[in-house]
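Researcher: Please predict.
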Amino acid sequence: MSELFGNEPLWVVALKALLVFVILVVYTLFNIWFERRVVARMQHRVGPNVHGPFGLLQSLADGVKLALKEDIVVKAADKVVYVLAPILATIPAFLAWAVIPFGPEVRIPFTDTVTPLQLTDMPVAVLYVLAVTSIGVYGIVLAGWSSGSTYSLLGGLRSSAQVISYEVAMGLSFVTVFIYAGSMSTSEIVAAQEDLWFFVPLLPSFIIYIIAMVGETNRAPFDLPEAEGELVGGFHTEYSSLKFALFFLAEYINMVTVSALATTLFLGGWRAPFGLGQINDGMLNEGYWPVLWFLGKTLGFIFLFIWLRGTLPRMRYDQFMAFGWKVLIPISLAWIVAVIIVRKGMTDGTFDRQTLFVAAGVAAVVLLISLFIPERKKPEPVPTSATDGATAPEGEGPAAGYPTPPMPEQSWNRKEGVRR
C-alpha cells in the first residue's frame, strides 16, 4: 500500500474524487447505449442510431427527458422516506469506488505531484466495498415500503432476501483471494497478481463471484425484485422523473462496481493482459496506459451482463433462493477448506505440483458426474377430500388434474365430476 495515501494535498484528493465521479457518470451513459445496441444486434434490430454519432447521445437525451418529466408522489407514500430512498440507493454506489485502483503511481500533468490512480486505500478495503454496497439495498427496501403499494413492498422484500443470500456467497468467494494475496487491500491484491492472475488458481471462486454479482445487482436472469410479469415494476413501481432516474443510475453503477471488483481481485486489476505487460520493459503497465486495460476488462464484464439478459429467461424465485443457499454457499465453504489445505501443504512441502494436478482432475470428473445425476423429487401428496384442496382426477371436471380448491359454498362430487 502506497505511503502517499492519507498524506496528499487536499486539491489532489478533490481532483481524483471529481474524476471518479465524471468517469462513472460517462461510463454509465455509455453502458446504457452499449446494452441497447448489443441487445438490438442479438434480436436483429437497429438500436439507437439517431442522436449523435452512432446514437451515442441517446442515453443523455433519455436522462434529460427523465429529469424534465412531471414528478408524481402518490398519496399513500411516506413522503420523507419516499424521497430519501433513491438517494440512499445511489450514494453508496459512488462511495464504493473510493478504494478501486485505476492504475499505478503517475505524475499529474503540468505539475510535479506524483499520486496513485486511486482515491484511497485501507487494510480492509474489500470489506469496505462490501459494507458500502450492502447499504444500497436499504434504499430499495425503503422505496418498496414507503410507496404504499403491495407490488412495491413485495419487490423490496424480495430484494432484501436476494441481496442477503447472494452477498454471503460473494463474501465467501473473496476469502480464497485474501489467502493467496495475504491482504485485504485492493492495491496489494493487484500487486500480488504481477506474475499470475488469481482467476487461474482460484477458478471456482471466480465462477461463484460472477454468479453472485449478477444476483447482487438484480440483473436478469436474477431480476426478481422488479419482475414485471408478477410485480409490475417492483420496488420502483410508484417512482417517476428524477427519482426513478436515480434508481436507474444506481443499478448501472453497481454493475460497473462489481465488474471493477472482479477485475481487481481476479483479473490483475489495471495490469496489461498476458504477454503485453512485457513489451518494452513493461511500458504498458506504467503511466496512464493501465487505465485503458482496467476499463477494457470492466467492459468485458458489462458485456457478460448484457449477454445474460439477452439470452437467459428469468428464474423462479424459489429456484433462485435455493440455488444460492443450497449450491453456491456449500461449494464456497468446501472450496475454502480445499484452498487452505493446499496452501498449507505447498508451504510444508507435503504436496507437489503433480499431486495437485491429479487431485484437481479427479475433483473435476466427480463434479461433472454429479451434474448428470437427476434430482430426486418428493412425491406429491394425494388429497383425500375436497376440503384438502382436492384435485380433480385426470380427465374429470373442468380442472382436469389442476389444483382448484372449491369455493366455500361448493363441494366436489368425485362420482359425478361436477361441483355443487
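Model: The first strand starts at residue 103 and ends at 107.
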